[in-house]
């Protein structure tokens, strides 16, 4: 791993944390609450949530996206966004379909579509940050 990749992971991890808070913690929180079956103890209260672990989780996903961008040569905002969006859509479609198969968590199948689209946007933004960092310092050809 080189320094540029480590910087891309860190920058996109911070972006993932902040954008995730805006997108999932504010903009879509009411939608998810209304469309998930509520079980006692399923969700922790805000006071019980561990922000450190949330950041580590975001950093790990950012590492996946940043490493993928690096390996695929995605070194611009657009190519990073597309790489991240594709990874996000595939990962979260897989997770949501498995949740639908094994758990009584969602009230309808529409939640899967919204969740995959929201996560594709989120992951695309992570990839855009990674692509910008990975492409920084390049000389115009």
Query: What kind of assembly state do the chains in view correspond to?
Result: single chain
In which range does the helix fraction lie? over 70%
Number of domains: 1
Q: Average pLDDT across residues?
A: 94
- Uncertain segments: none
Number of strand elements: 0
What is the alpha-carbon Rg in Å? 16 Å
The N- and C-terminal alpha carbons lie at a distance of 25 Å
Strand fraction:
under 5%
Q: Biggest β-sheet, characterized?
A: none
Q: How many alpha or pi helices?
A: 5
- Pairing-aware structural class of the strands and helices? mainly alpha
One letter per element, helices H and strands E, the order comes to HHHHH
What does this structure look like?
By secondary structure, this protein is mostly helical. It has one domain. The protein is 74% helix and 0% strand. It is built from five helices and no strands. The chain has helices at 3-27, 29-34, 51-72, 77-102, 110-135. α3 crosses α4 (77-102), α3 (51-72) packs across α5 and α4 packs antiparallel against α5 (110-135).
């Amino acid at each position: 791993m080189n320094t540029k990749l480590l910087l891309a992971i860190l920058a996109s991890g911070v972006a993932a944390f902040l954008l995730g808070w805006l997108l999932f913690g504010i903009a879509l929180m009411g939608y998810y609450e209304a469309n998930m079956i509520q079980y006692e103890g399923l969700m922790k209260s805000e006071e019980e949530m561990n922000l450190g672990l949330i950041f580590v989780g975001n950093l790990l996903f950012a590492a996946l996206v940043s490493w993928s961008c690096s390996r695929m040569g995605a070194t611009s905002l657009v190519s990073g966004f597309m790489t991240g969006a594709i990874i996000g859509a595939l990962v979260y479609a897989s997770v949501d379909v498995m949740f639908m198969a094994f758990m009584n968590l969602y009230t309808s199948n529409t939640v899967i579509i919204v969740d995959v689209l929201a996560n594709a946007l989120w992951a695309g933004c992570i990839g855009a940050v990674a692509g910008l960092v990975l492409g920084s310092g390049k000389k115009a050809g």
